[in-house]
Design brief:
The chain is an alpha+beta fold and 321 residues long. The protein has helices at residues 7-21, 34-37, 71-83, 85-91, 105-109, 120-129, 136-151, 159-166, 170-181, 189-200, 206-217, 235-245, 251-258, 294-306; strands at residues 2-6, 45-50, 55-59, 65-66, 156-157, 202-204, 262-264, 269-274, 278-283, 316-320. Strands 3-2-9-8-7 form a five-stranded antiparallel beta sheet. The chain has a three-stranded antiparallel beta sheet with strand order 4-6-5. It has a two-stranded parallel ribbon with strand order 1-10. Bound molecules: 6-diazenyl-5-OXO-L-norleucine (DON). 6-diazenyl-5-OXO-L-norleucine binds at residues 68-69, 101-102, 120, 165, 172, 200, 264-266, 291-292.
Length: 321
């Protein structure tokens, strides 16, 4: 079936979602990273980026928040760009764990590979894979450059978040060294962990995340800068990684109710990819027990349902003015 949307109908759905959930106070800021606990929990922004580069926004879409686990998608893309799809699968994997993002038992259960670049273990492994091996500074530049190209503008390191997270990331230190034990870390474990912690501490806006989602939805062509960031053949693989594990142990419920492959971060961000149609991002700090923003989930779900969109619908979507 053909689904015809207008620019105004999308604007209305975004504004409606914002108005509906603006006052919602469910969830709680992440507090295992001290910096995140003190962010204003009333912040709320929604941004949609269409494949012609136009944005539709409501609320705090220019506020730079901690990208956290959403950055796992960006570095998975970098690993795909540097190594290709086969190697990403053999060196990390593409399986959902069905377990929390920082699970150690998931590594023990599946010690032949860290399972997916979108949980902590796989994301630290992905940071270890980034070339050039052994050169922390150049690896960091590659990570930031890739993120900048995907989002159309540079992220800014939130130094206080980086320090806060580095001082408290004991669980992740165990993960890095456990991966080393299984031969699944491809550079120095402490350096790989530091890169992961730093990428999680990058400040990003909902506006930038929506552009990144749209770049993936547009098969690697950034619709704002017109830069071809990655080979379009990777797009289905990237979206499948997001779809299978983007919301950790809540991923199935999320996909079933929203129809949108999306990735969350404990900073309160969500980045969604609707292939061939748009990128959608939302941000609100209070999260649920799985680490996913409560308000951002409600808002994005509302927009998808209101517009009758789903990645599984089989509909051909057209957007007119
Ligand atoms: O590794 C951590 O714990 C954080 N830097 C990121 C976790 C995260 O965002 C999980 N996602 N919802």
């Amino acid at each position: 079936m053909e689904r015809n949307l207008t620019f105004v109908s999308i604007q209305e759905a975004v504004q409606e979602a914002y108005n509906l959930y603006k006052e919602n106070t469910d969830g709680k800021n992440a507090d295992y990273i001290p910096y995140l606990a003190q962010i204003d929990s009333r912040l709320f922004g929604i941004s949609v980026c269409l494949l012609d580069g136009r944005s539709i926004e409501a609320g705090d879409t220019q506020y730079a928040f901690g990208i956290e686990s959403v950055s796992k998608v960006h570095t998975a893309i970098l690993a795909l760009r540097q190594y290709g799809a086969e190697k990403l699968l053999s060196m990390i994997g593409a399986d959902a764990t069905g377990l929390p993002f920082n699970s150690i038992i998931a590594i023990l259960l599946e010690n032949d590979h860290p399972s997916t670049p979108l949980v902590n273990a796989g994301a630290i492994a992905a940071c270890s894979m980034v070339k050039p091996i052994g050169d922390a500074r150049a690896k960091w530049e590659a990570i930031v450059d890739n993120l900048t190209q995907l989002s159309g503008s540079a992220p800014v390191l939130i130094d206080e978040l980086y320090r806060s997270e580095s001082a408290t990331n004991f669980n992740n230190r165990s993960i890095a060294w456990l991966l080393k034990n299984y031969g699944r870390i491809y550079d120095d474990p402490d350096m790989s962990l530091d890169l992961y912690t730093r990428q999680c501490s990058l400040g990003i806006t909902a506006h930038q995340l929506a552009i990144c989602g749209a770049t993936i939805a547009n098969k690697g062509l950034n619709p704002v800068t017109q830069q071809n960031v990655f080979d379009g053949a990777f797009a289905p693989q990237i979206t499948s990684l997001i779809a299978t594990v983007g919301f950790y142990e809540h991923t199935g419920d999320w996909l079933y109710t929203s129809g949108l492959p999306a990735k969350s971060g404990v900073g309160g961000g969500i980045m969604g990819v609707l292939p061939g149609v748009m990128g959608i991002a939302a941000f609100a700090p209070p999260i649920d027990e799985a680490g996913n923003s409560v308000k951002a989930q409600l808002a994005v779900k509302h927009i998808m349902n209101r517009l009758g969109l789903s990645v599984f619908s089989g509909d051909r979507v057209t957007i007119t003015d």
